[in-house]
Every structure is written in C-alpha cells, then in structure tokens.
Amino acid sequence: MTSAPVADQLRLLDVQALDTRAQQIAHARASHPQRATVQELSARVAQLDEQLVVARTAVSDARRELAKAEADVELVRSRAARDQTRVDSGQVSVKDVQALSGELEALARRKAALEDVEIEVMERLEALEGELASLEAEADAARADRAAASAELDSALADLDAQAAAVVAERATTAEGLDAGLVALYDKLRAQLGSGVAALRGHRCEGCRLELNASELARITALPADEVVRCDECGRILVRGADAAR
C-alpha cells in the first residue's frame, strides 16, 4: 500500500503500544517467578512422598519382625511353663525331672536370647516410627507451602488475565475503523518483526533506534503526509508527526 489517513497512522502507534502491553502481560504470565516456587515445592513433595514409601515399608517390616519376635518369646515361655508345671506336679520320675530341668535351663537361655532380639527390634521400630512421623510432618508442611504458593500464583495469574482482557478490549476499540490495508500491513510486519510500526522522532526510528541520514530524512519529509513510509533499516511502518500529535 502507498497511503493511509494520517490520523490512522498515528492511531496505529496506540494499537502497537497496546499490542506491546499484551505481549508483556503474556510474558509476565508465562515467566511469573511464583511458577518456579510451585515447581520447586512440587518436586520437594514428590521427593518426600518417595521417602515416605520407603519409611512406611521399613516400619511395616519392623512391625512384622516384632510380632514374630514376640510370638517366638511367647512360644518358649509357654513351653517352659508346661515343663515347670510337670516338674512341680511331682508325678514324673527323677530321670524325667532331670531331663525337664535341663530343658528348662535351655529354654531360659533361649528365652533370654529371643527377648534381646525383641528389645532390639522394638528399639529399631521406635526409631523408624520417629523418622516416619518426622517425614510425614515435613511432607504435610511442604504440601501446605505448595498449596499457598499455588493460590498466590493463581491470584497473580487471574490479575494478569484481567489486565490482558482489558488490553484486548481497549485494542479492539482503538483499532476500530482503521484503514484495512494499513492494519493488514501492520499485522504482517508485527508477525515478522515483533512490532509493525514505529514513530519517527527527530532523526531516529523508534523501532530499530537508528538515526536516519540527512538525505533519507529529507526524502521522507517531502512525501505527502498520508504516504505510508517504511524504515529502510528495520522495515517497520514509520509514522511521522507523532511528537506534534501528542
């Protein structure tokens, strides 16, 4: 295209400002620092959950081991009680009494050894249960921290979404009625360059921030006011008169 109303070209700068603001909001949404916090806390929760599986398995195994140790002690205790009852009954021979006495001594030694095992398992179980309780408390705290961080992130994103919606609405109003050819060129350049229009302020293109040489500036100045000018350096639509319009 070669021309578009001067007012439309100037208004296109406002459209660009709103598009830039929309990009900034989108970037702020995608890169919000609270996302990293939520991710870190989620990773911590996952790590603690893995540790909890291991700790709960260890506690379960120790409880089974303790139950077996207690059963072994009870079995020996019951056997010793039966032998002692026979000895105390006075209804067995001297030879049997001697045999039972020897067995009672062996059972006493066996019972003492099994009780030592039982105590060791009980102490180990107590330590494992303490570690499990500590891990559960830590996991609960991490989950609470993650929930709080997620809520904070959701609130921040909702605010950014509201800002984005306001910008979209304002952009639609600002762009309404603009020259269709001008808008089509702008959209094409914006897709290619990130921004499609820039103001000419003094000797400088505000898009690429480069100074125009004197001959190029003179050529542009001599063109009709509604002529659509492109920056030779960056290719953006170059809007003249922005300073005066503001």
From TrEMBL:
InterPro entries in the record: CT398_CC_hairpin (IPR056003), Oxidative_Scav/Glycosyltrans (IPR052376), Zf-RING_7 (IPR003743)
Domain of life assignment: Bacteria
The keyword Coiled coil is assigned to this record: yes
Keyword entries, A-Z: Coiled coil
Domain (CT398-like coiled coil hairpin) ranges: 15-194
Positions of the C4-type zinc ribbon domain: 204-238
Cited Pfam families: CT398_CC, Zn_ribbon_9
Transmembrane parts of this sequence: none
Keyword Chaperone: no
Coiled coil segments of this chain: 38-152
The name this protein goes by in its record: Uncharacterized protein
Native organism: Actinotalea fermentans
